[in-house]
Design goal:
The protein is an alpha/beta fold and about 475 residues long. It is built from 21 helices and 13 strands.
Length: about 475
C-alpha cells in the first residue's frame, strides 16, 4: 500500500510528469479552501467501515452508482492483474474484480507484486509472463513502463470513461508525451494524522492546527504517560511522506516542484530547514514508539494497529499517514470517528499541506479483455464497490459521497473531488523509482538513516543529493 500536496492550480510540463504552479497566491487560496474543508469535517462522527447499508453506502454490488458503463461479453477470456496491495486492500479490490467477472464472463486472477513494482514487472516480462494489467503507484513508474515499451495506450472506450469521470488534472497525470496510458483508480489524501481519542481525552490534549501546536500536543500526551507517535519506519515511503508534508508547507509549492524535478539540489537550504523541523519529532527522546530502532523494525500496518490497541495505554497516541489508514484501523476494535479520530497535517509554514498519491491501472498486454477491465476501473461502477468497503478514495468525480461508509470518509472524498485540477502529487512518486521508490535505496534509505540519526542533517542532504543526481542523470 502506498500511498496527493499543497492544493494549487497546475499546468503540465512538457514531459507530462511534473505539475507547475501558476501563481503562489492562487496556491495559497486553493490550499486554504481544501484544508479548511478538512479541518471542519475530519473529526465528524463516523460509523463503521463494515459496509452496512445504514453507514452510508447503498446495498448491492455497485454502491450508489448502478450500472453506468457497457462491457463486452468475454466468456473464456483470462486476465491477470498485478498490484502491491495486501490484506484488506487486496481483498476489497478482488470484490471489484469479481463484479467485472460477473458482468463479462471473464476470469481475472490477482497477482501480488513486490516493491518496486517496476522491477517485479521486469522479471515477469523477461520470463515471458507479464500480467495483463498492473496498478502502478507512481507517475514515474508509468513513464518507465512507456519508455521500456511495456505499457499500451488506452483505447477509445477507456478514454471516454476518463473524459466523463475525471478532472483534467487526473487525466493528465496518467499521460506520457500527451498520450493516455494510466487510469487513476485509487487516490489518497496523505496529509492526515490519526489519533487515539481516549488517550487525547485522558491527557487533556487538543487537535493542533500548526506545527508548534503539534509539538505542544505531543508533549501533553507524553506527560500523560503515552508515547506521542507511532512511525512505520521499516517502510521507507512513510518517511518520505513525513518529509513532503513539512517541505511543502514550509518551502512552498514552487520549491516543491523544483525539488520534485531535481531542478534544485537536495543540499538546498530549504531541505535543511525541513529536515531540521522533522528532527523536532524524530530526534526527541521517547517521542517515537520503540525509539528509532523500534520504528525501523515497524511496518506500516503495525504502526497503525499499535496506536489503536492496548486500551488507554497503547504504544502510541498518534500515527501519520493517509486516508487508507482506515483499512488498518478496521483490523482493531477501534471505530473511526469515535475511538479513532483524525486531523489535517498541521501548517508548518503559511498554509497546511495537502498531499495526494494514487494508483493507476496500466495495460501491459493489449487485448479486448484488458481494455474492458481498464474501462471498468475508470467507471463509477468499479469505484463505487470499493468506496463502500472503506479505506479507499477515488478521484472519479461521478462516485457520489454517499457511496462511502462514514462521515469522515465522505468529507475526504468531497474535498478531493472539490479540488478539481488543484492538487500536488506525492514528490517521491514523481521521482525515478531508483531514487523515490526502492526499498533500501535512495530517498527511502536516506530518511531511514536520518530517523536513526536526526542530528546528521548535512550528511543526509549529501546522500540524498548524490542518489538523486545518479537517478535523474543530472
Amino acid at each position: 500500500m502506498r500511498r496527493t500536496s499543497r492544493i494549487i492550480r497546475i499546468r503540465r510540463s512538457p514531459d507530462n510528469r511534473t505539475p507547475v504552479p501558476r501563481t503562489r497566491g492562487a496556491a495559497r487560496a486553493a490550499a486554504a479552501v481544501v484544508a479548511g474543508v478538512l479541518a471542519v469535517s475530519l473529526t465528524a462522527c463516523g460509523g463503521d467501515d463494515d459496509g452496512d447499508d445504514e453507514s452510508g453506502g447503498k446495498g448491492g454490488g455497485t454502491g450508489d452508482t448502478g450500472t453506468t458503463v457497457t462491457l463486452p461479453k468475454l466468456d473464456g477470456a483470462n486476465l491477470s492483474v498485478a498490484a502491491v496491495w495486501t490484506g484488506a486492500e487486496q481483498a476489497n479490490f478482488k470484490k471489484v474484480l469479481a463484479e467485472f467477472e460477473k458482468r463479462t464472463g471473464a476470469k481475472v486472477t490477482f497477482v501480488p507484486a513486490q516493491d518496486p513494482i517496476i522491477n517485479f514487472l521486469g522479471s515477469k516480462i523477461a520470463g515471458g509472463a507479464p500480467p495483463d494489467v498492473a496498478l502502478l503507484p507512481q507517475p514515474g513508474a508509468i513513464k518507465q513502463a512507456v519508455d521500456k515499451k511495456w505499457a499500451k495506450p488506452l483505447g477509445a472506450e477507456a478514454q471516454a470513461e476518463l473524459a466523463k469521470n475525471y478532472s483534467q488534472g487526473w487525466q493528465d497525470i496518467g499521460k506520457v508525451d500527451g498520450r493516455p496510458y494510466g487510469v487513476y483508480y485509487k487516490a489518497a489524501n496523505k496529509s492526515l494524522i490519526w489519533y487515539n481519542a481516549q488517550v487525547f481525552e485522558n491527557a487533556g490534549a487538543s487537535e493542533p492546527k500548526t506545527w508548534d501546536e503539534l509539538l505542544t500536543t505531543a508533549q501533553t500526551v507524553y506527560d500523560s504517560g503515552v508515547t506521542p507517535f507511532s512511525v512505520g519506519g521499516a517502510d521507507g515511503w512513510t518517511l518520505t511522506d513525513w518529509f513532503e508534508n513539512i517541505y511543502l508547507s514550509q518551502a512552498g509549492p514552487e520549491k516543491y516542484d523544483q525539488l520534485a524535478a531535481h531542478e534544485i539540489k537536495w543540499t538546498d537550504p530549504s531541505v535543511k530547514e525541513a529536515l531540521t523541523t522533522l528532527a523536532e519529532i524524530w530526534g526527541k527522546k521517547d517521542y517515537v514508539a520503540g525509539g528509532a530502532r523500534g520504528a525501523l523494525q515497524t511496518e506500516f500496518p503495525e504502526s497503525v494497529t499499535q496506536t489503536f490497541t492496548g486500551g488507554d495505554q497503547p504504544k502510541a497516541a498518534m500515527v501519520y499517514e493517509g486516508d487508507f489508514v482506515q483499512v488498518n484501523i478496521g483490523e482493531t476494535k477501534a471505530k473511526v470517528g469515535t475511538d479513532a479520530k483524525v486531523f489535517p497535517f498541521p501548517a508548518v509554514g503559511d498554509t497546511a499541506p495537502v498531499v495526494s498519491g494514487g494508483d493507476a491501472a496500466v495495460i501491459l498486454k493489449d487485448s479486448k479483455a484488458a481494455q474492458a477491465l481498464v474501462t471498468f476501473l475508470a467507471s463509477p461502477d468499479a469505484a463505487g464497490i470499493q468506496a463502500k468497503l472503506g479505506g479507499y478514495l477515488s478521484p472519479n468525480k461521478n462516485v457520489p459521497s454517499s457511496a462511502y461508509p462514514n462521515a469522515v470518509q465522505q468529507k475526504m472524498a468531497e474535498a478531493l473531488i472539490g479540488a478539481g485540477d488543484d492538487f500536488r502529487f506525492d514528490m517521491s512518486d514523481q521521482a525515478p523509482q531508483a531514487f523515490g521508490g526502492t526499498p533500501g535505496k535512495g530517498e527511502w534509505k536516506a530518511l531511514q538513516d536520518f530517523l536513526k540519526d536526526p542530528k546528521d542533517v548535512a550528511g543526509t542532504q549529501r546522500r540524498l543529493e548524490a542518489d538523486a543526481a545518479a537517478a535523474y542523470g543530472n
